Amino acid sequence: MQQCYGGIIRRQRHFISCLGGDHRKTLLSVTRMQSVMNPTLEADALSILRSISPTLDSTKHKGQAGKIAVVGGCREYTGAPYFSAISALKIGADLSHVICTRDAAPVIKSYSPELIVHPLLEESYSVRDEDRKSVGTLVLAEVDKWMERFDCLVIGPGLGRDPFLLDCVSDIMKHARRSNVPMVIDGDGLFLVTNRLDLVSGYPLAVLTPNVNEYKRLVQKVLNCEVNDQDGPQQLLSLANSIGGVTILRKGQSDYISDGKEVRSVSILGSPRRCGGQGDILSGSVAVFLAWARQLVGKEGPTINPAMLGCIAGSALMRKAASLAFEDKKRSTLTSDIIEYLGRSLEDICPVR
């Protein structure tokens, strides 16, 4: 037991050194604004990834390596929740769920028998006005049966913008927050959050992963100004701080990550191919690494933000997998090709011993 505890402490000290700190101090005291003042924002992403990836051994049981649930998938969009959920499994989560609409469920199930698919959500067209309250209550009750089993939710891939569906997902997010379950919010989940900031404001286990257009809408909504690329890191820090300390992963040529206290970047070479679905891989990746980081950080030791660690590790792995896929497929690279390189990429960085 002492040997195990010592290993945990050594890995936590390594976290801090990777993020530019000193193991004799807490991460918070070392890095408040340090990243913004320091021109070198690049995180030691590969070391962080190695530090939070759990070992594989025969003493563990199913579920200990993570149980992820993707909330998304409707009539029009079935690929996005699949990409996110299957990526979580390919990286090493033990179980991956998809909570979607009834119409989307058979399609998503047909993509892979590895996913646990819950056809629980409803869209406006299938619910009478007078039944909306009772149906919404039933949806939340069904999701509640599973909530305590989830280590992280991914909100938004393939969700769509149906008003009743978004209302149901809002209730799910409120319940997840009360249950202290982390949430990675992407796609149409960001559309929802931009118009309902109260869903995530002040919740440190919420991660937003906006692309260029989603980030622009957030900046306009929260900061009431336009995106300022000349002072991008400072604006990102202000945005995260203004939303109450959520963690934001701003996707781009380099990914910038902030929790309102510090800013880090990940600039590992990715792929010039911009096929749709890569953000869904990233959301599933961040969810897994956030869950792993939270398990480790939950032990005694220095206070470290697992959301920051999860974003850095997820960004690094996604970029490496995309780079390898592009080397192989070039212009024909698809999201499914990148997914197939996730396992090899993680093994290259963090070999199984």
And the CATH topology? UDP-N-acetylmuramoyl-L-alanine:D-glutamate ligase
Spans of 5+ residues with little confidence (pLDDT < 50)?
1-9, 22-39
What's the architecture, going by CATH? 3-Layer(aba) Sandwich
* Shape, per Cα inertia axes: globular
Q: Could you describe the largest sheet, including whether it forms a barrel?
A: 9 strands, mixed
Describe this structure in words.
This protein is of the alpha/beta class and 353 residues long. It has one domain (63-349): Ribokinase (UDP-N-acetylmuramoyl-L-alanine:D-glutamate ligase). Helix content is 49%, strand content 11%. The protein contains 15 helices and 9 strands. Strands 3-2-1-4-5-6-7-8-9 form a 9-stranded mixed sheet, sandwiched between helices. Helix 9 runs parallel beside helix 10. The longest helix has 24 residues, at 306-329. 50% of the residues are buried. Residues 1-9 and 22-39 have low confidence and may be disordered.
Main traits of this protein?
disordered N terminus; globular; 9-stranded mixed beta sheet; 11% strand; alpha/beta; UDP-N-acetylmuramoyl-L-alanine:D-glutamate ligase; 353 residues; 9 strands
